[in-house]
Amino acid sequence: MAESSTGEERQSRSDRAANRTRSRVATVTIPMFSALIRSLWFLLAAFTLALELIPLSRSFEERFSSFIFYSYVVAKLVGFFIFGFLTPIAWWSYKTFGVGALFVLFTTAIVELAQSFLTGHRFSIIELTVKCVLVFGGFVAGLDVRKYQELRAGPLYVRFSSCHW
């Protein structure tokens, strides 16, 4: 009797695994700590910082609807989250990615302070706090992905590989 229940349990587990595999739309494997991820990290840093430092003129803003303007603002905020998220995935050494996280926070603070000197911008402690929270939130999510080497978002399954383990 015990043998048949063990066999049924194995069959049940394999059925569940098959169902999980069938429900995925796509499985993508991304190598962590690669030159590609580090390049993406630097590109995102440059893009996010440029968006923060280049002021939009009033006449430029008036040409777009509120929806487009706020979509632009949300895209910038998502950029800060992804910037923090990629930091532990881009850098292997714990010392290195700690420096990366400090770099992200430092540049965020510097950019926010620099905005007080640019026409069309102003310094805001609330914006700085929100950006730092987003960076740290992304960093924590990136640490989770680094540990478990996977990310699931609905039917999308992203596997992260590493040559270090």
Keywords:
single chain; 165 residues; mainly alpha; 2 domains; three-stranded mixed β-sheet; globular
The tally of strands reads: 3
Helix run count: 6
- Largest sheet: number of strands, sense, barrel closure: 3 strands, mixed
Structural class: mainly alpha
Distance between the termini: 41 Å
What oligomeric state do these chains adopt? Answer: single chain
* Average predicted confidence as pLDDT: 77
How would you explain this protein's 3D organization?
The chain has 165 residues and is mainly alpha-helical. The chain folds into two domains: 1-31 and 149-165, no CATH class; 33-148, no CATH class. Helix content is 70%, strand content 10%. It has helices at residues 2-23, 35-53, 58-62, 66-90, 94-114, 125-148, and strands at residues 26-31, 150-153, 156-161. The protein has a three-stranded mixed sheet with strand order 1-3-2. Helix 4 (66-90) crosses helix 6. The longest helix has 25 residues, at 66-90.
SSE blueprint:
Blueprint: H1 2-23, E1 26-31, H2 35-53, H3 58-62, H4 66-90, H5 94-114, H6 125-148, E2 150-153, E3 156-161
Helix pairs in contact: 2-4, 2-5, 4-5, 4-6, 5-6
